[in-house]
Design a protein that fits this description.
The chain is of the alpha+beta class. It is built from three helices and 16 strands. The mean pLDDT is about 95.
Length: about 230
């Protein structure tokens, strides 16, 4: 088996969420952060023949990078990685014990979704860059008027410091009510792309990539508020 560039990108992205990974038999890959506040799932073009537990995903990706065109042959206790043009160049990489690896036992079912919007790749990039530039740890989606078409905005800031620098942009939300939905910037570990976003007042959000089959569920911070 050879991994596509998209699958490799997914694995690199998932390594930022959790270095542990269990790949189930089939073509679906899912991960969950150690704090259980981020869950991600992707459908990939490869079909994995068995369950594979990886304790250190960055180490595994580093092993793959030693080969210009790696070919993977999965066995009972290990995967044999070899060079496509020179099969005698190879590495035996052993699986971990699944019991010591964190993975989601079941996927999240979203509760009622009060607010929806589309997050463009450009806006996502701007927010991430702005948060890094001004050292903003928090992000808030807010609307102060109880009208479906009232203006909404996303701001990166330090919610504990009213005089700290902040960066804001407008978003076109769908849904009634007034809300302040808070996130940790460090939890926005999304692969580049444009996302359909749905947020529940039960303090959970869902991000579905519009161009590839990858999605994330990210917990809101407890001080988030919503009222009709």
């Amino acid at each position: 088996m050879k991994l596509s560039s998209h699958t490799t990108s997914v694995l690199k992205n998932f390594s930022t969420i959790n270095q542990n990974l269990v790949i189930k038999e089939g073509n679906s890959i899912a991960t969950m952060s150690a704090m259980k506040n981020i869950v991600a799932k992707a459908e990939v073009e490869e079909t994995f023949p068995q369950e594979i537990a990886i304790y250190d995903l960055n180490e595994f990706l580093g092993a793959l990078s030693l080969f210009s065109s790696p070919v993977l042959d999965f066995n009972g206790s290990h995967v044999m990685i070899s060079e496509e043009t020179k099969p005698t160049t190879k590495m035996k990489y052993f699986y971990s014990d699944p019991s010591v690896v964190t993975s989601p036992s079941k996927m999240i079912t979203m509760p009622s979704e009060e607010v929806k919007f589309t997050m463009s790749n450009e806006d996502l990039s701007k927010l991430k860059r702005a948060a890094g530039a001004i050292g903003a740890p928090d992000m808030v989606l807010e609307r102060s008027m109880d009208l479906e078409h009232a203006p909404s905005s996303i701001t990166v800031k330090d919610k504990k410091n009213d005089t700290a620098n902040n960066y804001s942009l407008d978003v076109d939300t769908v849904g009634d009510g007034q809300f302040n939905f808070f996130f940790k910037v460090e939890n926005m570990k999304l692969l580049d792309g444009t996302y359909d976003v749905a947020i529940s007042s039960k303090n959970i959000s869902h991000y579905k990539n519009k161009s590839s089959d990858i999605e994330y569920w990210i917990a809101l911070e407890p001080e988030s508020t919503y009222k009709l």
